[in-house]
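Notes continue from the previous slide.

Worked example: a multi-chain complex. Inputs as given:
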Amino acid sequence: MATGTSHPKRWLAHPFMSATIAASWLLLQQSFAVPQLITAAVLALVLPRVLAGFLGPQVKVSSWATVVRFTGIVLWDIVVSNITVAKIVLNPAREPRPAWVPVSLDIRHPNGIALLATIITTTPGTVSCVIDEDRHEILVHALDCTDPAALAQDIKNRYERPLREIFE
Amino acid sequence: MDTLHPLVDALISLMLVIGALFTLVGGIGLARFGDFFMRLHAPTKATTLGVGGVLIAAMIYSWASGRFGVPELLITLFLFITAPVSANLMAKAALHLKVQSKAGRPAVFDDGAETPGKQG
């Protein structure tokens, strides 16, 4: 990827990322002493610049209300599907019916696609196996699924649509 | 060390038990499931509610004993970033090596010997 040459290297081109890095460092150190503050500032400035070639353009979040609502939905889904999968695991009479589910994507923002794949994997019962950027498709392995088309539609409605609202 | 309120104690214990239960279920799943791709599901489960339960317990304990219990959140963040990437890489490697799957071989991914019209 040669995006490093097309994007001019600037300091603080990714303010949100810089803030996250600085906050993570201070939390890890559990201290706001001056040396730690200086280290945090240096990391926050240098890391995004070094990684600029991999990052692409800055992410602009268009709706923070959607971010909050979506976070709630995802957390709730994680709990619910954990219980669903636990039932399958603990019931010896129940053989799971695995299936491959191709999910075609309408979302085009690379960070949005990455986040969608992460959410699919983090929700128990589905793992995103192949992210095909040319075909605009994520190939999902579902642990127990009898209707792949319905599951794909579910993923699109529940996760992809809010992500598009956030990123696009 | 000062003692905690019994209710806080109970809450912490409850979260620990929930976390431990889901981690155990993840382990049983790992042993029980029939193929590689199904076993991939076990760690994603253990890292969400399993670790989540233990972390919430740790945070409540920190707060109850008067410390700033936010660093635990970082563990969640790091897991959320790293676990799906490793699962994705393992799945890709397994597909590349044509590891047997009970779900068959995905029609869209069948490189070379494509079966047209099998899946939309």
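Summary box: Confidence is low (pLDDT under 50) at residues 112-120 of chain B. Residues 6-107 of chain B form one domain.
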